[in-house]
Amino acid sequence: MKRILPIVLLAVAVVLLPGSSASAGTAWDYPEFPYPATTYSEPFRGQFHFSSQSGWLNDPNGLVYANGHYHFFYQHNPHGLEWDTMHWGHATSPDLVHWTQKPIALEPGVHPGTLFSGGGVVDKENTSGLKTGSLDPIGVFSNTDGVSIFSSNDDGRSFQAYDQGRKQIDIPADSRDPKVVWDADRHQWVLVVWSNQGGNGVDVYTSPNLLKWTFASRYAADWLFECPDLFPLPDPAGGDPHWVLTSASSDYVVGTFDGRTFRTDRPQPRKMNLGTTYAGGTFYAAETFTGTPDGRVVQMAWQGGNRGSTWTGNATFPATLALVDSPDGLQVTRTPVAELASLRADSRAWRDEIVRDGHDPFAGIRADTYEITATFDLTGSTARQFGFALHSRSDGTADRTVAYDQDAGTLYGKPLAPQGNKVSVRLLVDRGQLEIFADGGKLSLADNVNFDSAAVSQGIRLFATGGQVRVENATFTRLSTSWGTDQSTLESNLAGPWHAAGGAWTDTSGGKRAQTTGDGFYLSASSASDADYQGDVRLDTAQAAGLTFRATPEGAGYTANIDRSGVVKLWRPGRDIAKYAAPIAQGQTHHLRVRTDGPRIRVWLDHGSDPVIDAPDTAYASGVFGANAYGGAATVQNLNTGPGGFTTFSSGPWKATAGTWTTTPAGLRGSSAGDAFFLSDRTGTDFTYEGDLSVTNGTAAGLTFRATPQGAGYTASIDTAGLLKLWRPGQDIATRATPIAEGRTYHVRVQTAGPRIQMWLGDGATPLIDAVDTAYASGLFGVNAYGGNVLVQNLKIG
Fold first, then answer.
1. Which pLDDT score is estimated for 3?
2. Bond from prior residue into 497 cis (ω within 30 degrees of 0)
3. Which of 164, 364, 421, 439 is most buried when burial is the number of CB atoms within 10 A of its CB?
4. 267-271 long-range contacts, Cβ below 8 Å, gap at least 24?
5. Is residue 154 among the annotated active site residues?
6. With 50 as the cut, is the pLDDT of residue 645 above it?
7. Which of these is catalytic: 29, 59, 123, 136?
8. Residues in contact with 442: Cβ distance below 8 Å, sequence separation at least 6, in sequence order
9. 539, 528, 530, 526: which is closest to 568 by C-alpha?
């Protein structure tokens, strides 16, 4: 969605985040995490409604369930509080309730095209052929006046543009907001995209593989503007599923889909939500999740009316959609997902209460975030109005009143007919959000309310005016906060929850950053006796930082650290067990690996084949894993147990010339704006050298050989400009045009014999480059990254 936003926002005072402005990024530092720390406790910040950690949020994008988590992508300006320079923000949740902010998913400057609203799917059957690893690929669709495709094979941590971002669907008119759904009956993908060809409507396309699309039909309707969604819902009578087509403003129709054409015999749309359904209102651009494990259709929408000092906009609480019969045909219902129960704290219930002046069952309850359900029996009721005054005060005022008017037949001003002479309501009350459900979800209304969270303003009044009404049953349930249960940027296979034992630990794009004066620990919930444990450690201003293991919840245990005095140290409280002199560079990432076998503890540095420390100690037999920092700022990342990591030839510790080199379970990751080398201490003259290379995002990755300690030597590169290249400083020795795609892994092999250098790609029998050069006769083996992020694995020398 675009264009209308600046109009809506003219009446809003907009302030950019301090010290920042709307901007695009670069491949080498993607994905960025530009969020200042927050406790999510600011006034009006929803405690169980998702809002971005900071910045502007609008349309939900690409809602998928993948690899064990729900992924919520969204239109996002992370650098300001207004709509500008759209990115795709990203959050994940195990249960649709507890959301964790993640780094940026799609970023202008890194990903081509206009990154406006779109949809996403999980290609579990790999129909696209884009899968490169063990995880199911996530595909997302964006762009305007046509559709471009982006994919992720690392569970949404990074995305690559398919076919360099070229539009796979070209639409010669204004168009945007593609949404894709799997049509199981016909084993095909279906895409709907808004366009104004002859007026409002959606174009329908089909594909067997997500990549090649065929125009199927067009459904035109004046009401069908922006952010369409198309999905099947079960028939309430047990017949064939029905298909629902929706617009950004929550208008919808129910019909059939034959694999090419959507049809309905009731073309007059209904409203799915009765909030203010315009851009910037309280319910807009709703989208449903694809791939849910239980088959539910779950929807979230944009609430633009909520804002605070560091964020603008939030999402509605996830709602399950269903169809029910009504006198006017099939109707969609919306009900909060059952996982809301995970937030429920203390609860109270009432039955058969008569509400009148002087009798309020809710008297004395004080609450900030909560859920209320109530069924009112109108038999014998004399009250003109009845309902709830929310966040009420002793002077009789309240921040919002939700009342049923018997004469008008309305709830909160919206028509609602009693069912069996009863009115049932359900309220979700958050700090800046109010959601109202009634009549089994037939009525759904999202609103933004700036509730006063002061203790004197947390009352709730159940009232009846002009008479009395019987409450058949009612419940009040306090709802806890959903924030702070997972890691935003720390990559680890260790179980949470994590906790700090000393120091302040915050999220940065490079991992978890500590700020300490003395010792500070950040500890997982995973424990073991004997294990392989590894991670990346960088001294920013700290004296020392390292890996902690076999520790108590307070951090007492073993720590293997790097110290800027020039040592690797194994220590426990009160004793330095062993030290190893090593050149430890401030600002450079070092990789540590620890292996424990009973009392024997070994420590490896920077992928060296032999341990730099091998010492016995019996003080701690088992305990938790974590990290340590001492005397300043340090950053830790990729804290993992198990054998995964960088597989390479035997060598002493490796050294970086530039850039950032870290070790993920998938291999060695290099990030650099220009040329950066990571070099072993192995040298060679004539040899075969091979390995697996991938440019995650950016320009080039390569095998470096016959190099000086500064990296001057030969490099055999794969380049996303579509080249294989053999080069040395100042000269491209040979190039070969070859398609190289971001995110794909390529096996590169080099063979040298005197001045002759040959280069193979894959298992080909014939070298693609065969050249002669005499500049370097012998030197070090290593790898290279240029202008982006690269991944290196399985290096061998023969």
1. 38
2. yes
3. 439
4. 267/221, 269/221, 269/223, 270/328, 270/331, 270/332
5. no
6. yes
7. 59
8. 324, 326, 331, 333
9. 539
